[in-house]
Design a protein that fits this description.
By secondary structure, the protein is an all-alpha fold. The chain is elongated, with a radius of gyration of 23 Å.
């Protein structure tokens, strides 16, 4: 066996071991007491969940436990909106999120800042701006987006 083929074999074994370690998920007993209490309704079928799903739920429980009351209320509200969405609306929301994540950090921060300023406007002004935006043609929207990008890229 050549040195290169041994190296490739070792790489395959290491990747398989890493995948196996990731595939083990989170044992119920490895959760913190607070996580187990929060997830008590999941206990009976925890071992039946996919390992990646176990890890996702465990991370979510940890985030929930770190939230204050107002953050929890906001998360509940967002979840209710999510539950009310159609499959198509959820897919569109996921795509918009992925587009946002692909933006350079400066553009993401600028977009978040613009959204924060928008949220601080009085409700009547936000309604007015939404209506004006809805009346724009796709070309007009593209021009506004291009103008915003040019402002972002100025030195």
């Amino acid at each position: 066996m050549t040195r290169a083929s041994r190296f490739v074999g070792l790489c395959v074994v290491l990747v398989a071991c890493a995948a196996a370690a990731n595939a083990q998920g989170v044992a119920w007993d490895d959760l913190s007491d607070a996580q187990r209490q929060l997830l008590s309704s999941q206990r009976d079928h925890w071992s039946e969940l996919e390992p990646a799903r176990q890890e996702q739920i465990a991370r979510g429980a940890e985030r929930w436990l770190e939230m204050n009351g107002s953050d929890r209320a906001a998360a509940r509200d967002r979840f209710q909106v999510w539950q009310g969405m159609t499959d198509e609306q959820r897919a569109a929301a996921r795509e918009r999120y992925q587009e946002f994540r692909r933006l350079p950090p400066g553009e993401r921060e600028q977009l978040l800042d613009t959204y924060r300023r928008y949220r601080m406007l009085p409700p009547e002004r936000r309604i007015e701006l939404r209506e004006r935006f809805r009346q724009l043609t796709p070309d007009q929207r593209r021009v506004l987006r291009d103008q915003r990008l040019r402002r972002l890229n100025r030195p």
